Amino acid sequence: MDLKKTTAPVNTVTYNRTKIEEPTGNIYEAITIIAKRASQINTEIKKELIEKLEEFATYNDSLEEIFENKEQIEVSKFYEKLPKPHALAVQEWFEEKVAYRESNK
Q1: Which of 101, 105, 104 is nearest to 32 (CA)?
Q2: Which pLDDT tens digit goes with each residue over 93-102?
Q3: At 44, phi and psi to the nearest 5?
Q4: Is residue 100 within 8 Å of 31, Cβ to Cβ?
Q5: Taking Cα atoms as reference points, which of 103, 96, 104 lies closest to residue 37?
Q6: Which UniProt key words apply to this protein (predicted)?
Q7: Among candidates 55, 82, 86, which has minimal Cα distance to 71?
Q8: 49-89 pLDDT, tens per residue?
Q9: What is the Cβ-side half-sphere exposure of residue 102, based on CA atoms within 13 angstroms?
Q10: Do residues 15 and 34 lie in contact, with contact meaning Cβ atoms separated by under 8 Å?
Q11: 72 CB-side CA count, 13 A
Q12: 58 closest CA partner among 74, 71, 73, 69
């Protein structure tokens, strides 16, 4: 997932309910699928952020020496400005990029 090229909104948006439930025919199923995808996206973003911050980590036992790493701050600011995982999941849902299957069939 390329987070820089996403068109998901950063602010709160009201969506058309019928457009969300259209692929499944059931609003609850659609929301459940979107929620599971948002959880996956959140895990991916968190893993990526931790990996990037680990590159700049300094392991020092002294509490007196606190370093402000500018690169680490910039990485953190970038991830703070990203759309939330649920917004990314809804955007993927509308673009039909979310694969799902019914377990009953």
Answers
A1: 101
A2: 999 999 988 8
A3: -60, -45
A4: no
A5: 96
A6: DNA-directed RNA polymerase, Transcription
A7: 55
A8: 999 888 877 666 555 445 567 788 888 899 999 999 999 99
A9: 8
A10: no
A11: 11
A12: 69
**The amino acid at 8:** A
Q: At what angle do helices 85-94 and 27-56 cross, to 10 degrees?
A: 130
In the structure encoding, which two tokens stand for residue 103, read together?
A: 């377990």
Tell me which amino acid residue 70 is.
K
CA distances from 50 to 1, 2, 14, 47, 95 (A): 16, 17, 32, 5, 28
CB 101 within 8 A of CB 61: no
DSSP H/E element including 44: helix 27-56
> What length does the chain have?
105
Neighbours of 31 (CB within 10 A): 16
Query: pTM value?
Result: 0.82
Residue type for position 81 = K
